[in-house]
Amino acid sequence: MASPFRVVDVNAWPRQGAFAYFKELDHPFFNITSLLEVGPLVAYCTAQGRPFSLAAVYLALRVANEYEPLRLRIQGEQVVAYDEVQGSMTVHVGEEQLAFTYMQYDPAFAVFLERAEQARERAEANPGAIDARTGQTDVLHFSVLPWISFTSISHARSWRTGDSVPKITFGQYRNEGERIQMPVSVEVHHGLMDGLHVARFLERVQRYLSAPETGLEGAHG
Questions:
Q1: How far is Cα 90 from Cα 219, in angstroms, rounded to an integer?
Q2: What's the rounded Cα separation, in Å, for the pair 128 and 100?
Q3: Rounded CA gap, 152 and 158, in Å?
């Protein structure tokens, strides 16, 4: 069941002109890849025995639920703002098979982690199955590529359905001098967001990556 939402008054929306222009383009998406510092999160997850990738997904979801532009979606001719967004993540199971999992968000990281691990177990028990809820739009689409560090990436999209779900990809983290950096790709619909919004989103994610105790243990707010 999708999360509640409110309809944005497009006529009074500061992005009215940009929305009207970009929604008519054949390819209305743009992608930004940035290197984020993940050393503190790597150290935290190692010490606490927590899976790094799921911790990173949780922090991105937490920021999205605190920052409205990542919760905007196009529904027909309307723009809606979901009250809450969930996670939809690709996982590799079986013999090089890809599965799509649905991860319900919870402000408590421990609860989210338990749900995410259960989702992965279901995917491993049913290789090739696709959770029907991944068709919902109150999600962020996540991918994790721990085998490679990238500088850009593109995604499969359905042009016919008016897809406007953000896609976030984490790459392989590497030591860069005294820092540990990870490429993070954010792909969004240009009718809903500009580079400024992606930059603000990544800036907020970086704050939590730099202080994982705050992001993973602190009160939601």
A1: 28
A2: 8
A3: 20
SS3 200: helix
- CA distances (Å), origin 3, targets 50, 71, 104, 200: 28, 11, 11, 24
Tokens (6 digits) for 155: 């995604």
3 state SS of 139: strand
Q: Do 187 and 29 form a contact (C-beta atoms < 8 A)?
A: yes
Tokens 């991860």, residue located: 103
Q: How far is CA 178 from the centre of its chain?
A: 27
Contact (CB, 8 A) for 45 and 52: yes
pLDDT by residue (tens digit) across 42-93? Answer: 999 999 999 999 999 999 999 999 999 999 999 988 999 999 999 998 887 7
Q: How far apart are CA 104 and CA 88, in angstroms?
A: 9
Say how far apart CA 187 and CA 141 lie, in whole Å.
Answer: 10
Type and span of the H or E element at 119: helix 109-125
